[in-house]
Amino acid sequence: MAEISLKNRKIGDGHPVYIIAEMSANHAGSLERARRIVQKAKECGADCIKIQTYTPDTITIDCHNSYFDIKDGTWEGENLYSLYGKAYTPWEWQGAIKEEADRVGIDFLSTPFDNSAVDFLENLGIEFYKIASFELVDLPLLSYVASKGKPIILSTGMATVDEIQEAVDTIYRTGNRQVILLKCSSAYPADPAGMHLRTITDMKERFNLPVGLSDHSMGSLSAAAAVALGASVIEKHFCLGREIENPDSSFSMTPEEFSAMTEEVRKVEKALGTTFYGASPQEKSNLAFRRSIFAVKDIAAGETLTEENIRVIRPSYGLAPREYGHVLGKVCESDLKRGTPLNASVIKDYLTLIPAAQEHKELIFNWANDAQTRAQSLSVEPIPWEDHCAWYEASLDSATRSIYICYHADTPVGIFRTDLTSDSEAEISYQIAPEYRHRGYSVPMVALGEKITLQTTPSLRKFHARIKPQNTASLELVRKLGYRETGQKDDYIVFSKTL
């Protein structure tokens, strides 16, 4: 998805929603009121104040035949020229409005309606533009605005897919590719039932651009829903009070309503968060209420695990339920009291380690080049096949290195390795296969690997391990197995365990 910058703000997925307060005609003919609207918009959480740059003569002509009369809607009975005479923002005010926006720390934006307005806004120092829905089809205007090389927010009310594409292509042909689209219902006020907010997701996929909502409906429900659907920009008309009569007041938000909307939008943003699986920090304490395998009768050492003496129940301190079929029929090596969680350490042959052989060469190569494994390794670079083959052959022939493949039933799930550094000391390392992580295999595998190493090398008195500080899983593992931090070497923490 494309990402667009408006001044110092990034617009697009993963960035805060950009909220625009549209002043439009709500100044009701008072520059002082316009300044107050700027101040209030900032106080109410808006990121930007927007006005419109036109005069009655730049947007239409002074003509009173039926073509220029508004026949329905909010402005029914008005003449276009007369309406725009009531609604426009005098150009001589606009510098002062921008100065007030700069003073209070809110972005300033305007919608031009002809080339003379663009020239005026360029002289004013505007940094990005808004195009109204009704002007989307004015391709010469779009081309002229785009030629200024600044970002363009383009409302798409009433537009077909082809019309939107034509508008975007017109902007792109100037070399300007900084476009944000706004879904819009060009009704005043808009009925939420006719807003079709799901179009936002389609627009994002279809045009690969940030998409927002220009919202003319009453209340903040549509704005919050749009954010949930992926809107990156929200634009709402803003007034000091609907009792201040002007052409836009009836469908504009009051400061109290606008503040409530910005708060709702920010709450929705937080609730959306990021793509995330697993237990959140709030949920972690509740992991204990998952199910696991427990002894439900007293079990003596040497006794077989059966459906009568072990069950899958709450809480979750024992082996995961997926292990139930694997452990049934195995021998328990320690006495277990009823109500004790079943853990791998008490089960005979829960895991098995066999010496690595030629048949495991490609398997270990693939595991070693897993991205997460490389990130935690001494060298983070991918391992070429030729280098791996040379290392593997040397390892199989080495008198000081031992590599074991860990099996869970008939499935290889990890590697345990030792390197003798002297007659009495060895460094251990291990890896769980990417597809079998987070299943509780690492602790019993390393414990079994230590046991086998001590059987084959009785002279050992100390194990060492080097672990990167960010590798929290391995840090937890070695501490659980009795290792103690003894120093730091390069980018690794050194742990040791006296036997």
Unreliable spans are none
Number of helices: 16
Q: How does the helix and strand content classify structurally?
A: alpha/beta
Q: What is the CATH topology classification name of the largest domain?
A: TIM Barrel
Mean pLDDT: 95
CATH architecture of the largest domain: Alpha-Beta Barrel
Large-scale geometry: elongated
Task: Give a description of the structure.
- Strands 5-4-3-10-9-8-7-6 form an eight-stranded parallel β-sheet.
- It has 16 helices and 19 strands.
- Helix 6 runs parallel beside helix 7.
- It is α/β, with parallel strands linked by helices and 499 residues long.
- It has three domains: 269 residues, TIM Barrel; 63 residues, Type Iii Antifreeze Protein Isoform Hplc 12 (Alpha-Beta Complex), CATH 3.90.1210; 147 residues, Gcn5-related N-acetyltransferase (GNAT) (Aminopeptidase).
- It is elongated.
